[in-house]
Design a protein that fits this description.
The chain has 45 residues and is mainly alpha-helical. Helices cover 62% and strands 0% of the residues. It is built from 2 helices and no strands. α1 (2-13) packs antiparallel against α2 (19-34). The N and C termini lie far apart (26 Å).
């Protein structure tokens, strides 16, 4: 989990991309990472 946080922080600290691109890319990564085992997520019926 800490590796994911470091990955996100490094990505967000990159000044080469606009904030809007970073937002959508980060959202995509989080959705993908929720599907991997070991990441806490909420489930409901």
């Amino acid at each position: 989990m800490e590796d994911l946080v470091k990955k996100y922080v490094n990505f967000l600290n990159d000044d080469k991309k606009p904030a809007s691109d970073k937002f959508w890319e980060l959202e995509k990564w989080i959705k993908e990472d929720k599907r991997h085992p070991g990441v806490i997520m909420e489930m409901s019926r």
